[in-house]
TrEMBL record:
<dbReference type="InterPro" id="IPR022259">
    <property type="entry name" value="Acessory_Sec_prot_Asp3"/>
</dbReference>
<dbReference type="Pfam" id="PF15432">
    <property type="entry name" value="Sec-ASP3"/>
</dbReference>
<dbReference type="GO" id="GO:0015031">
    <property type="term" value="P:protein transport"/>
</dbReference>
<protein>
    <submittedName>
        <fullName>Accessory Sec system protein Asp3</fullName>
    </submittedName>
</protein>
Length: 156
């Protein structure tokens, strides 16, 4: 049974390393659950650094989905708690996919906050951290919260 939680902001942490993480030449240090330092001074711009998924195939990668289910047509805000050197050089991207894994919509923000509406034709979504000329960043967590003006829901 799926229970609906009203107005709850669950923190999403770095989590385990996976094949979707950019590891080549990178130094990733986890000091605590909510403090991961990522260093790579030669990182190309546009590279995906970390990926979280709302749907995964456990038999392929041994990882459970790390994102909550969202309600179609509802507004949400994704807020990332991190600092980068130089500043504003890590971008957050959300990619919405249809039933066949084809991207139907994507949004990118460089300020760590992203407001979005979950598309009607979306079946799953992914959150990516992208390099935009970064050398180092400290990642704490991110949250996905319903837009308070509409009373949306996050399904857990």
């Amino acid at each position: 049974m799926i229970t609906i939680k009203q107005q709850e902001a669950r923190r999403h942490y770095w989590g385990p390393l996976s094949s979707a993480d950019y590891l080549w030449g990178s130094l990733i240090q986890g000091f605590a659950r909510d403090k991961v330092v990522f260093k790579n001074p030669l990182m190309p711009s546009g590279q995906i650094l970390k990926t979280w998924k709302s749907m995964s195939n456990f038999s392929d990668n041994r990882l459970a989905p790390s994102l909550p289910l969202l309600k179609r047509g509802q507004s949400y805000v994704l807020d990332v708690s991190m600092t980068s050197t130089p500043s504003h050089t890590v971008m957050v991207e959300i990619v919405f996919q249809d039933r066949f894994g084809v991207a139907v919509k994507r949004q990118v923000a460089s300020d760590g906050s992203l407001a979005f509406v979950y598309p009607e034709n979306a079946y799953a979504y992914e959150v990516h951290l992208l390099s935009a000329g970064m050398q180092e960043f400290v990642f704490h967590y991110f949250t996905i919260t319903p837009n308070s003006s509409e009373g949306a829901e996050v399904l857990a």
